[in-house]
User: Fold these one by one.
Assistant:
Number 1:
Amino acid sequence: MSGLLILFLLIPLVGIGALFFVRRGSVMFMLSLGAVLLDVLCLLVGISGLPTCLPMQTAGGWLYLDHLSAWHLLVMLLVFTAGSLFAPVYFRDDLGSGRLSLTAARRYNQLWLGSLWTMTLTLLANNIGLMWVGMEATTLVTAFLVSIYPKPAAIEAMWKYLIICSVGIAFAFIGTMLVAASLPATGEGSQQLFWTQLSVAGGYNLLLLKAAFLFSLVGFGTKAGLAPMHTWLPDAHSQAPGPVSAMFSGFMLNAALYCIMRHGAIVNHALGSDQFTSRLYIIFGLVSIVVSAAFIIYQHDIKRLLAYHSVEHLGIITLGLGLGPVGCFAALLHTLNHSLCKSLSFFAAGRLGQLYGSHEMGRIRGALHGAPLWGIALVGSLLALIGVAPFSIFISEYLLVKAGIDRQAIVALVIFLLGSGVVFVAALEHLIPMAWGTAGDLPEKRCSLSAVAVVVGLLGLLLFFGLYLPVPIQNFLTRAAALIGGLS
Amino acid sequence: MLTLMSLLLFLLVLTNLTLLGSSRLAFCIRIVALQGVVLGLIPLVGLQPLSLRHGLLSLTAIVLKGGVFPWLLLRSLRVARVKREVEPFIGFNVSLSIGFFALISSVVFASKLPFGGHKDTLIIALALFTMITGLLLLISRHKALSMVLGYLVLENGIYCLGTVVADHIPMVVEFGVLLDVWVAVFGMGIAMYQINREFDHTDVDRLTELRG
């Protein structure tokens, strides 16, 4: 069973190697879809046995999977599957006209599988140093996905992304180092930095450990797009091609937040209470919500609008982490909902941008009529994104409010609700003319089967989880939420 | 041994202040190289007894920071045809003054930190000072290459801190060296190449299309 963990790391690498030998663009996209689907197959095989064999370790304890990482692995594979299905739709025209050369297509697919590999490494690493290495590698691999079309604006975005996130990741390294510094020397070697050891160890220097958490929160928080360290995010998200923006928003940010959860659990365990981390989670969460709400009002580029929505939702997830076990449960559920929803909205924005020849919201008019499939996708996903029932984001936000009332965090809740209210109104104001305005003439495009499958599948999942959350998933999430709390 | 250590620490301070005050990029690259060698030597001189692991780590650091990185950077300097950093956002004199202030604050701050063993307090202080210098270079300079240098200096500081505070657990400082190799050289190196090809310049402050 534990051999599965090695397979997860092996499949993308084999895919990257195989791409060197492919000479046709469409085959390259099929190949990366195949690799992702193989990963999904592994997970499905694993899921049947997961409840009994989690947590599991392999490779001398360096690789580790528990409920928390398994949940993130599931979300990641959903996002990558949807992205791999959508990529051929998005790139077909450019591949046909030669705007995307074969070399660029190969590089895109290799970097795509490379990002999958680095994020898998982040999730499966047991040693917090190795986890950090995985996160750092995501920056390098994904930076060049932003500038796959070497336009000046894309290169500018790539450079900002690289510099800001590299400094962030350097801070996260200081955090990791300080965790090591807060430990007494026991001569156990690098096993001492295994999360499985850290979450049960004693004898920490608490002051250093708290400082370590601050550095990790700011460092990984930069990568997760938490305000005020979010400044790279709108640029990178808006300049990257559609599937890449979806992957950034749908999972890369979550991977960084996952690292914060791991560090937070260690601190909670060492301090014996979650008061210290909760307060920080709530502050960073609320600042992100407020800042993004302010920026959402004034956006005129649809992808930048969606990017600020990511800042908001990552803020909501972080806020949830600070609201006790129920809050953590809501946060994890929100992770899934946000990832599904944001993938769909970035797909729609990317495709509509191609059809209308611009990402300016002023120029996208009457999408429901002009391009029905992507119009429906945009309307559905944006409505879900701002928390309209019966989509699943409504449920996770409702749970979060409930958790906040239980913890009597009334001020936090008021700010959260006000922020979401502003976002709700502002987003609707942007959405209505885009969806229902009078459409100009659009070039007639037929919708491929995979495009329909992506839209229907993602919207269906959003509705399904909004109406019904199966009991096994609830149990699974409860176990995962307990791991974040770190208090057994 | 104490005198050799003092010399190294003195050199560390001197390299930082020189970087804050000089505009010629080729010269700055060489100073960063010197700093890399100094940092590689500090654990060798400071730690008794020496282990194989420390020897290898120091050797790697010296070869990478003192040899490979500067060579790559000097090469890209020739390709980008830039010579000096002109009028940074924070002037050279102001940078130097901030540097002196940062040096004093780091020493005061480090003496209050809860790291056991007081003998290393000075090294920790200088590590902090190096990190601040790196950050200052990162935020105050125009040229992409200066920012890469700033990042390397920040990394040097982190490496130095790591060799003192996290040395008792293997594979922490080693991971940090990876950060250098990947980010500063591969990542930013390729990025600079792309900027140079598309814009005919590497003035990062002239990348101003994306706002709001």
Note: The CA atoms of residues 80 and 149 of chain B lie 15 Å apart.
Number 2:
Amino acid sequence: MTATVSVDAVMLEARAAELGKRSIKTSAKLAGIDIAIGCIDLTTLEGKDSEGRVRSLCAKAIRPRPEWNEIPSVAAVCVYPNLVSVAKSSLAGSSVKVASVATAFPSGLVDLDVKLADTAQAIAAGADEIDMVIDRGAFLAGREQLVFDEISAIKKLCTATSAAQAIPLKVILETGELGSYAATRRACDLALEAGADFIKSSTGKVGTNATFPTALVMCEALRDFHRRTGQKRGLKLAGGIRTTKQALTYLVIVNETLDETWLDSKLFRLGASSLLDDLLMQYEKARTGRYAGADYIPKD
Amino acid sequence: MKFAYAPAPERVRPQLRERYGLFIDGRWTAPKSERYMETINPADETRIAEVAYGDAQDVDRAVRAARKGFERWSKLSPADRAKLIYRIARAITERSRELAVLESLDGGKPIRESRDFDIPTSAAHFFYYAGWADKLEWALRAQRAPEPIGVCGQIVPWNFPLLMAAWKVAPALACGNTVVLKPAETTPLTALALAQIVEEADLPAGVVNVVTGDGATGAALVDHDGVDKIAFTGSTEVGKIIQRRIAGKGKRLTLELGGKAANVVFADAALDQAVEGIVQGIYFNQGHVCCAGSRLLVEESVHDDVVERLTNRIRTLRLGDPLDKNTDIGAINSRVQLEKIRELVRAGIEQGATLVQAECELPARGFFFPASFFTNVHPSHRVAREEIFGPVLAVMTFRTPDEAIDKANNTPYGLSAGVWTAQGSKNMWVAQHLRAGVVWCNTFNKFDPSSPFGGYKESGFGREGGVHGLREYLKHA
């Protein structure tokens, strides 16, 4: 296991705030919106999710604004395991992937065999990507090896599948429950060592989700992992990302802490539901100088 | 699609006069010298405006006005003085955007810094000291009635023009003194804007006088028999001249001079955050900062790691138009300063240090210098000893805490220092042993009006800011 890395909140937050002050206007704003849309994991993770709801979300994922051809599809649709097959059939023929949460999302407090079964079921139903959660209780109790082993086990399942290529594994750290930036950094390092293809900030189910300083810590971990191993791993930020301004700041943080090659759906995702609507509205504003009424944006 | 930041220029343009007179006795007057000087924009070398050149006669007029003003101002009730100083503070806040542009235009600093640091901190100093005006008894150690000193000659530098004026004018006024302010030759405009604010705030005539000019103007102010106190911020060289010139004259003096601060990074520090502190310490305001962390002392075991992180980090610094909101490194203040930086960088290379520089295109016009640092620096190198006052850092190593302290204190200066370690006890122990006026722990360049600032050794004496700053403007303090 790698050595523990110190993180100090004062300068970390100062740097994150500084990056949040970048002024992204005109052509940069249009480019940023385009990148952000292409990196969205359009998400619905509610107890009341239904097949109909997932189908309409998928339609929007493929063509976010049907009258504008230049708008790209989003990266993926993210659903619960038992809606994977619905999403899969709705997205057939498109570039949009099906991501499924698994491992007893959002708490992860079940035994490993249940987590494995949950994941296997999602994969069998056609999931292209898996979003697992770590056992935060074990992590905070100092049982790092258990957390590591669980990630490794799920990773093994994702690579051993019959699918043509390995299924990317996103590891949700639930940073809002980890209590400090230093713990977040430690969890990032642990997940990357254990084989996470993406480190993901949050489930969206607790009070604190992705924040600018958290994103910065995660980028630092990814940058150091790349320095150490030569491998580029991905970042997924999720929870509470609703506005274009937030999304653009996250792009800035990635751009200046990692580099521009990370601004691609292979290495960067924004897990969000309502963000897409604001991006579409801001896109129109940036292009035409006018805001469209909310009714011009299709509800999903 | 490529994510390249588009230009984001600040579009507000300040109201400028073609030509500025001197602000003496509450009025704008033509200089007796009959001479004017140009002030230029260092980012494109274009002329911004003409300002009056104040000679010894003009200084004399200003000092006489300040003496007359003192009779009224010192007898005003403290609460009324406070009210007028609050007015200045509010006016700075209300005009902050315009003042920020003016500061960046005249001095070359990024608008991000003038907008987020210089102007708000200037206003904060006036707010802070306005609050003290009617509570001065509490500022004194002995229970004596507070008494102002009289007429204060205040000479400020070009690196933080309005802020340095605020540091000096606000406590002087709060204590009941009157001032003759001499702004720096290359950056007079925000001091003149402050004079406009003072005029609009209806302060009594002669309380604040602004005499623009050059070194000779400052010398005339220092030499004038009617001045009771000199407050100077600038180079150690000039500080020494001032101290000699006023010797035996009974004038009070505070000097805030040069520095060659050490930023001490231990192996156990949060290195990414230390790198942010290093960047903040040396590249803030193009390194035109007397308390800049211009010597990096890094524990040998993490030297290569820190250098690699720093090399990557300075690649992301954006150099260019000071008025672009995304600019991190603006223009060097003047051609003279640019030449001085170039000369010291040449000396660093000749003496065998290794130069690392951010690769970036420099604008065709204006005075620019890329973010730079030297590795393989030895304590005997000029770049390790002399104040460069530019975006150039000297990186050296140490092995033990004792060695770090020895090296950090091995300078004639002693203005500031930084310590970076995750261990609280080490942080405190090192801070106690550093001979510097300000020691920042796991952060750098943090300022607050309530916190005193000033130097050890050749970095000067006297304190500005906080209750300590008041005592410099009171008798018997």
Note: Chain A touches chain B at residues 5-8, 10-12, 14-15, 21-32, 34-35, 220, 227, 251, 255-256, 260, 263 (CB under 8 Å).
